[in-house]
Design a protein that fits this description.
Pfam families: Pyr_redox_2. InterPro entries: FAD/NAD-bd_sf (IPR036188), FAD/NAD-binding_dom (IPR023753), NADH-Q_oxidoreductase (IPR051169). Its cofactor is FAD. The chain is an alpha/beta fold. The chain has two domains: about 210 residues, FAD/NAD(P)-binding domain (3-Layer(bba) Sandwich); about 160 residues, FAD/NAD(P)-binding domain (3-Layer(bba) Sandwich), CATH 3.50.50.100. About 30% of the residues lie in helices and about 25% in strands. It is built from eleven helices and 25 strands. The strands form eight sheets. A five-stranded parallel beta sheet has the order 3-2-1-7-19. Strands 9-16-10-11-12 form a five-stranded parallel beta sheet. Helix 1 runs parallel beside helix 9. The protein is globular. The chain starts with 12 loop residues before the first strand and ends in a 21-residue tail after the last helix. The chain binds flavin-adenine dinucleotide.
Length: about 400
């Protein structure tokens, strides 16, 4: 199958972007801004809800903090991209159509698939029935209401990755009357350097979070979580932060996906089985020299921009360039008054350098609030969005360090 797709005279090339998260929005804004007044290319953005989900702040929503209400049509304003509100229920890669809410069908010439990921509620029995997750604003608000009503009791945060750490810290700070327990296989901050990890531990301790690492949650019950060979922990509320899964739409459509359901891409971010489909953000399995990228906002936005630039190159009859990205930081909030920023090598491994305390809080806030100004700049100056660290020797494929 050829990926070359220069627009034929008199026709309109339809680019449909699925998912208006960090990656999908970056693709849509970049593409629409670069197209400008061209009438032969149309960009349509599909998202389950009108409100932009600030995933990076869902632990704040879950503790009753009011966030700015960002809406997708507002963020797309002035770009010419069209917003279509609805849930993608299936994709037919042969007819190049997408079904929305089971009752509408959209056709595309090129698809940008950016449906992100959600908490893996199928990971252990009982999660779907008895645990809260941080996937969307509505669910986070339900959790906020429950925590506010609780007054006293135990909240178990299951999963000691960074989402679990940020969530446990936020709940403990906002609800000092609650007993917060953070459970997980690894110790919090396992991938950070030892001093940064120690800082995270000290912050959790100061906030009163009880950490139990080296444990495996095997079941969530109505008022407890069961651990493998280590009894159970009573819980009034359980928050599941034990891993994510992606939407089944791509796999069901017959696209080649990895063992986690992410679309396997070529170097230019096109599906290896269906090159008219670009995969971006958490929904994509993208290989770099250091391995498959892990999903983050810092990497998701560049994938969206790169897909947009590649689509335009293809429309001009040129080959898309390979995508290269190197991580540079891991900012972690520890409540509202503390944070830590671990600077990293391009492969995500920790450097010695880090920020802590108020400086880290300001850094983290600047990063978290940066997407919409970035999109605003992109609308005026598309090239401004195409700058990110390429990772040097770390991201060269086929080369071991
Ligand atoms: C509490 C928390 C804190 C985090 N903190 C950080 C951080 O500090 N730094 C960082 O880099 N990363 C952080 N992450 C991870 C980061 O949020 C994700 O990596 C990022 O959101 C991925 O962007 P994305 O565009 O791929 O997906 P998303 O942002 O998840 O966007 C996907 C969009 O697609 C929509 N969608 C999904 N399925 C469908 C469907 N079937 N039909 C229609 N629409 C659909 C969703 O509603 C959403 O709007 C955090 C995550 C959480 C949960």
């Amino acid at each position: 199958m050829s990926a070359q797709c220069a627009v034929k005279a008199g026709t309109t090339h339809r680019v449909v972007v699925l998912g208006a998260g960090y990656a999908g929005m970056s693709a849509a804004v970049q593409l629409a801004a670069r197209i400008g007044s061209r009438h032969d290319v149309r960009v349509i953005v599909v998202n389950g809800q009108e409100r932009f989900t600030e995933r990076l702040r869902l632990h704040m929503t879950a503790t009753g903090q009011q966030l700015a209400e960002l809406c997708v049509p507002g963020l797309l304003q002035g770009t010419g991209a069209v917003f279509e509100c609805g849930w993608v229920t299936s994709l037919d890669a042969q007819t190049r159509t997408v079904r929305i809410d089971d009752d509408r069908v959209l056709s595309y010439d090129t698809l940008v698939y950016g449906l992100g990921g959600v908490a893996d509620t199928a990971a252990v029995p009982g999660v779907a029935e008895h645990a809260h997750t941080l996937d969307g604003v509505q669910g986070a608000e339900v959790l906020a209401g429950r925590l506010a009503r609780l007054g006293s009791g135990t909240v178990v945060v299951a999963g000691s990755g960074l989402t679990g750490v940020e969530t446990a810290a936020e709940i403990a700070e906002r609800h000092p009357g609650l007993h917060v327990v953070l459970l997980g296989r690894t110790e919090p901050g396992a991938d950070l350097n030892p001093k940064t990890r120690a800082y995270v531990h000290a912050a959790l301790e100061r906030l009163g979070v009880r950490v139990r690492s080296g444990v495996e949650v095997v079941k969530v019950l109505p008022a407890a979580v069961e651990l493998a060979g280590a009894g159970s922990v009573a819980a009034d509320v359980v928050v599941w932060a034990g891993g994510t899964r992606v939407s089944p739409v791509a796999a069901a459509a017959g696209l080649i996906v990895d063992e986690r359901g992410r679309i396997v891409t070529d170097a230019a971010l096109r599906s290896v089985s269906h090159p008219q489909v670009y995969a971006v953000g958490d929904a994509a399995a993208i290989r770099q020299g250091y391995g498959i990228m892990h999903g983050t906002c810092q990497s998701g936005m560049p994938t969206g921009v790169h897909a947009a630039v590649s689509i335009l190159r293809s429309l001009r009859g040129r080959q898309p360039k390979p995508f290269r990205f190197g991580y540079y930081h891991t900012p972690i909030s520890l409540g509202r008054n503390d944070a830590v920023v671990q600077f990293t090598r391009p492969d995500g491994s920790p450097r010695r350098m880090r920020l802590t305390g108020r400086t880290a809080v300001r850094y983290k806030e600047t990063v978290t609030a940066s997407p919409w100004p970035t999109w605003g700049r992109m609308k005026k100056m598309p090239a401004a969005g195409a700058v990110w660290p390429r990772g040097g020797r770390f991201t060269r494929t086929g080369k071991t360090r």
